[in-house]
Amino acid sequence: MRINKFISETGYCSRREADKLVESGRVTINGQVAELGSQAELVDDVRIDGKPIGEQRGHVYLALNKPIGITSTTETHVEGNIVDYIGHAERIFPIGRLDKDSEGLILLTNDGDIVNRILRSEGRHEKEYVVTVDRPITPRFVKGMSEGVHVLGSMTLPCIVKQEGERVFRMILTEGRNRQIRRMCAAFGYSVRRLRRERIMNIELGSLGYGKWRDLTREELTQLFATLDSH
Fold first, then answer.
1. Which domains does the chain have, with CATH numbers?
2. What is the pLDDT of residues 85-127, one digit of tens each?
3. pTM, to two decimals
4. Which of 45, 84, 99, 229 is catalytic?
5. Is 88 exposed, middle or buried (0-12, 13-18, 19+ CB in 10 A)?
6. 99 is catalytic
């Protein structure tokens, strides 16, 4: 495979970052300085700055099923902060936020570059939620929510809203304003009783236990970086 893909699939960095490493002459394949487009296989000796890539201190990418009551902050003086909750050996930080009174999927990493790329609004990256409200949902509510709601001084972007129960709906957003779903519901006179995020881009909550975390898989990272590289 191409050297930039080889490096990105180790989780060391994105393909774009790998290209920069190659261009600066910091990557070797079997002792030879790599070039853009060079090919590498698993049996090859790939090194960055002279060190085997397997020995490099790579980045950490985690998925957490955040419980209600945990705050998405790195400020350790805040009781119930997400960093202390996980207790990871690396200094990690959340990618975006999930309200203290909300639950579900949140990603954490020590890779500052990927944080900025995921959070850029022009990326229009999907996030999927399941929401329970305090009274029966109407067709007017579903239509209005999907077309956009005036909150925080402007209209929200059109989104996908699908009713799943009398008081439960699934929602796919491509933006992330402060307490957006709660504010949108309130505009129609509804109060959110439960809010769970189930997906961020290609990363799904799946069967991850409540309050548990796991490392992202190589397959998840490969697809994630490919999506980011395409924007």
1. 3-55 (3.10.290.10), 61-121+208-229 (3.30.70.580), 126-200 (3.30.70.1560)
2. 999 888 888 998 999 999 999 999 988 778 878 877 556 899 9
3. 0.76
4. 99
5. middle
6. yes
